[in-house]
Amino acid sequence: MGKINIPLLLFVLSVVAVVESSTSRLRPHSTFIETQCRRTRYPEPCVTFLSKYVNPTSQDPQEIAQAALKVSLVRALHTKAYIAKVCKEPKQMKAKDYQAIRECFVHISHGVSQLTNAVKELQNLKLDGQLKEFLWHQNNVQTWLSTVLTDVYTCMDGLSGFSKGGKVKATIKAKVLNVAQVTSNALALFNGFAAKYKTSHHASYDNNKP
């Protein structure tokens, strides 16, 4: 069983807490955030989360994409921790159910790794380099986020035959579905940021032509 990365969780939560504290007295919704969230598949939770973690005055698609990635990572870490707790009680469930949950834990753990990579990639991304370099980083983030979505939906498929009823199954599925939704939104917001950057990069290149 993989261990929960406590230092990583504390780091991400501290970043989120600082941003939330600095924006708590500002207006709760930003027109720019709402506009960006319209490109997502789940616009309502998109606005709800980002309104807490992004400065409402921000007009920076990269900042919004970065916040969305961190929200996904925090949600995935919480989900991983909950499933790990359930896995510590194998005697209270059938072997088939335990195996389904154990496999779900593996997929979510892998998703956490992929989201961690994506957060670091965008955080360290320099926008003053060559377009070819940017496209390489873009492909990395898109690949990692797509992998996370594959992981969470594979987990949910595995729970379809889960015989243990009631609250445990419902809670796991709800948490995993939430990870899927926020990650889908993060991918859409990142794609929007990437498209805007490439457009501005081409415009800058054309203006600098001799």
From TrEMBL:
The UniProt record lists the keyword Signal: yes
Occurrences of domain Pectinesterase inhibitor (ranges): 28-189
Record keywords: Signal
InterPro entries, per database record: Invertase/methylesterase_inhib, Pectinesterase_inhib_dom, PME_Inhibitor
Molecular function as annotated in GO: enzyme inhibitor activity
Membrane-crossing residue ranges in chain numbering: none
Signal sequence bounds: 1-21
GO BP terms in the entry: plant-type cell wall modification
Pfam families registered for this protein in UniProt: PMEI
Gene Ontology CC terms, in alphabetical order: plant-type cell wall
SUPFAM superfamilies listed in its UniProt record: Plant invertase/pectin methylesterase inhibitor
Protein name, as recorded: 21 kDa protein-like
Source organism of this protein record: Nicotiana tabacum
Gene: LOC107795516
